[in-house]
Amino acid sequence: MGEVRWERLGDPRADPLVLLHGTPFSSFIWRDIARAMAISRSVYVFDMPGYGSSAMYQGQELSLDALAGVFAELLRHWELTCPDVIAHDSGGAVALGAHVDRGVPYKRLALVDAVSLPPWGSEFFALVAEHTEVFRRLPGPLHRALLREYVATASSPGLHPDVMDALTAPWLSADGQAAFYRQLTQRRADQSYTDRIQDGYATIDLPVLVCWGADDTWVPAARGRELAELIPGAQLHIIETAGHLLPEDRPAELTAALLAFLEDAD
């Protein structure tokens, strides 16, 4: 899978908390929330293989199943036996799969606009899957414009230009452009994974919070409500005026909801 970039914040003796990002993002989306959580937690963030500052290369295995395996290996490497976990987008599918399919234990789990139930994937996903080689050969300026327009749709109130630059930067080099379309194509093929693991949601026996942006157009809030109903005892928290990129759109409100969940479940 290649080198994985990771970082730990806060007191290493504090209760561990792991943050997972989704597609097509990186641990950058957790920067403010991670710092806030690190006041009282030992916080771990990482860029999944094929994303952010982690390794990207042709032929890289980027399936959700493979990424769940990487996540399980990282927890062993960090010697975390039962951490709190917060996961966004496809990171949600990774966290869910590691738990229900691989038996990885968590203390608590928070799922934020999580890829978890069909149908998922936009029309853009389908178009890329059908014409991957064409998109990989787009001239750089056209790829950049398309990428920025696509990422912009993940936010409801809109992204600050500096945030947009940071979110898109990993995908702008020649290798990054190829990796961007490679991971999108893989995600399009990954619905069979969530189809396979979703029966296991009813077996989850730990505190779970489902957080969603009310204006999410990538994975609508109705999917969050359905997910919360499938997981026994799960709490549901919908945040208004927020899209799919809830950690960017409403970081303070999301942090408050997450802290309340973690403290209430202690």
Automatic annotation (TrEMBL):
Pfam families: Abhydrolase_6. It comes from the Bacteria. InterPro entries: AB_hydrolase_1, AB_hydrolase_fold, Carboxylesterase_BioH. Gene3D superfamilies: alpha/beta hydrolase (3.40.50.1820). Residues 17-256 form the AB hydrolase-1 domain. Keywords: Hydrolase. One of its GO terms (molecular function) is hydrolase activity. SUPFAM superfamilies: alpha/beta-Hydrolases. This is Alpha/beta fold hydrolase.
